[in-house]
TrEMBL record:
Protein name, as recorded: N-carbamoyl-L-amino-acid hydrolase
Highest taxon listed in the record's lineage: Bacteria
An example molecular function term from Gene Ontology annotations: hydrolase activity, acting on carbon-nitrogen (but not peptide) bonds, in linear amidines
Residues involved in Zn(2+) 2 binding: 92, 127, 386
Entry keyword annotation includes Nucleotidyltransferase: no
Cofactor descriptive note: Binds 2 Zn(2+) ions per subunit.
Domain Peptidase M20 dimerisation stretches: 218-311
Similarity remark: Belongs to the peptidase M20 family.
Keywords: Hydrolase, Manganese, Metal-binding, Zinc
Subunit structure: Homodimer.
Residues the record lists as binding Zn(2+) 1: 81, 92, 192
Cofactor(s) needed for function: Mn(2+); Zn(2+)
Amino acid sequence: MKKADPGRIEKHLKELNAFNSTPECGTTRVVFTDVELKGREYVKGIMRGTGLAVKEDSIGNVFATLPGSDPSLAPVWTGSHIDTVLCGGMFDGMAGVFGGIEALRLIRESGIKHKRDISAVVYTSEEPTRFQVSCLGSRAMAGDLTLEDTKGISDKDGNTLYDVLCRLGYDMGRFGEIKRGPGSVYAAVELHVEQNRRLEDDGRKIGIVKAICAPTNFDVIVTGVQSHAGGTSMEARRDAYMAACELALILEKLARENTESEYTTATVGRVKVSPGSVNAIPGRCEFSVDIRDVDFESKRKLTERFLSECAAVELRRGVSVSHVMHNQDIPLRCSEEISGIIEKYVKTAGLPYEKMISGPYHDSMFVGRFAPVGMIFVPSRNGISHSPEEWTDFAEIAAGTDVLAETLAELANR
Ligand code: GLV
Ligand code: MN
Ligand code: MN
């Protein structure tokens, strides 16, 4: 097999990074905004330039396919996403998109025969940045986001996903075709940056993912009484923000002290305090909760414990606490067979590697509902991601791409 070209991967990543709505703070490319639509066109251009046939489904998942010799066989997929968090980096998702396209180029240019089609996929909106719900494209493939659901989720301006898709000309009459059943995809392998510092700390170049943690996401709404900061004594006030702070600290403690699972995290990432005046006690505070776990049952119990703490804080502080659940996703065990193939090629390449759990989620978590999946991680400098500081050396992405190409070629001949 020919070797991946780090220079080409660098060029593509940097060119895509020009489609960015916050050049002053890292990369922001939110699904179906002007920069993201231009980014999509850029990626489709690269796919076509690589000799791949490009297709898109009704939620904007893009497929670029290298045909195999037997079209009756289920295809092999690779791929990731091009949307980002606010002020994120240029590698999360994009490394796997261009690594995937490069892998298909290597297979084709090396003249490797394969029976199954191999597709490089760009999944729509892995990040929940715009619609609060993550993995829109792969979630719909797994049947966990229906046409009806698209009418019930909206962005901060009140645009529903359904309306946005219609406005962009996607054919909602074909929404049913997005869903994939078991057996429709033979195997899927995603290349991604690690977003943690284990590989770097351990001096390894490749991570083989054993399992992907899944999030539970909900918003908590605390309603207290808005009143004068000076005129309301400490005893009399019903401060929505302080109640939210107490809940955030309880959440942190629950996650830190959870002994029921190998990996648990909990994050309050967005807080909105109203009215937001220096001299008024907040009457309302809304905050987001993100609980991750590699074990669904442990996550379910932790969520339950937190919600019962909400009821306790309600009583203690005389506020009311409600929540709006967005998703309670299921963690995924990667396919041991695919991981074994990845490991074989990592060993052949002489790359130091380790097996690991992914704290971040990925589209593979949903693809894994209908196909066996594997994931290849490459190091994140200082373990940083979802930040302008996110970095992975292009040579490291190329090394992961070489392993990906070998793995895809083998799977496509099974
Ligand atoms: C995806 O980016 C995640 O939040 O894990
Ligand atoms: Mn991400
Ligand atoms: Mn990602």
